[in-house]
Amino acid sequence: MKIINTLTKTSVETPSSSAKTIDFKQHEFTCFSIISFLAKSALLVRLPYRGVLINTIFTSLILISFYCYLRFRQKITPPIWVMTLLVFAVGIDVLGNFFGLYGQHFFLWDFDEYTHFLGSASAFIPTFWLLTITTRKFGHNLPLGLLAFFAVNLTFSFCAYYEILELWDEQYFGGKRLWSPQDSAQDLECDLAGIISAALASVAVVKYHLRWKAMPQLG
What we know:
two-stranded antiparallel sheet
């Protein structure tokens, strides 16, 4: 219940400050987003070739910076489930490389397809949460469906960018990431399936919680 409260409540307190201060916060948030994007790119472009320890340290630094910025600069405290899902989204890829699971077939899909489906679904939920919290903090109370639509597009854009990173890895860093002409398209297909599944589930859970809150409580 606490998880849903975090997503649905508009309880992010915006301090009473001048419009100039709020505008500065927005620009600051934009700059932080760009820096985070570049740091994540540096992590992902060579992720399969690093050891688990290096990837763990790199990922931890990014996530700690993400948490501290939101907590101390924007006065937003990311819930533990948000951080856990972000760790899982990267960790499933790292562990798959470490244990040599890529290329292995499990039930209906290859392991690579599972990582794209689960990793994208795991990335969508924190994206949805962050988009909801930040838009409300900056005074934009968007409808739930529109927030989900924007979050789907944003998450899928990140997934498409990851496929570009794989191409750059082969072209400029001597890596081997694309195994067939259909590789990127199949990956994006699994990404989109995971994102849409997570979006539908998230919206359904949030709507159910909102209806439950609106019901008269007995006793």
